[in-house]
Amino acid sequence: MNWKIEFFEDEAVLKMTVKGIFNTEATIKANEAQLVAGKKYNSSKFLVDSSLLVLDINRSVVFEIISNLYPSHDISSSSYFAMVKPKDSQSEALVTFYIMAMERMGWTAKMFPNSKKALDWLCEF
Predict the structure, then answer these.
(1) If you write DSSP's letter for every residue of 4-45 in order, what string do you get?
(2) pLDDT digits (tens, 9 = 90+) for 21-41
(3) How far is 16 from 6, CA to CA, in rounded Å?
(4) Cα 91 off chain centre by
(5) pTM > 0.85: yes or no
(6) 59-83, pLDDT tens digit by residue?
(7) Contact 98, 83 (CB under 8 A)
């Protein structure tokens, strides 16, 4: 899979960089890897650099991840999710839907133009 996960200990932020075309299977696996790493590092602050991501999925996959995968990993409602805006317009629309759905489910999520702004926001918490 085409992702990289790193943990910034001083900021307690888990960062995942994703790039390339992600279908349903890859999207679910990447999200699961991020959630497992979050538990490993005891982090509730997630940064996803999706600037080079192209999603080949539909909204039902996004909703499935949020409504089933996240609860199955006991992701706390006090978690924060910062997404870097994808350059691909269809992927941006899906990330916008993801953020809206996350907020409706009780999590805090926001999209940013770059990783630095996303990290700065996560460091506020």
Answers:
(1) EEEEETTTTEEEEEEEEEE-HHHHHHHHHHHHHHHHHTT--E
(2) 999 999 999 999 999 999 999
(3) 6
(4) 13
(5) yes
(6) 999 999 999 999 999 998 899 999 9
(7) yes
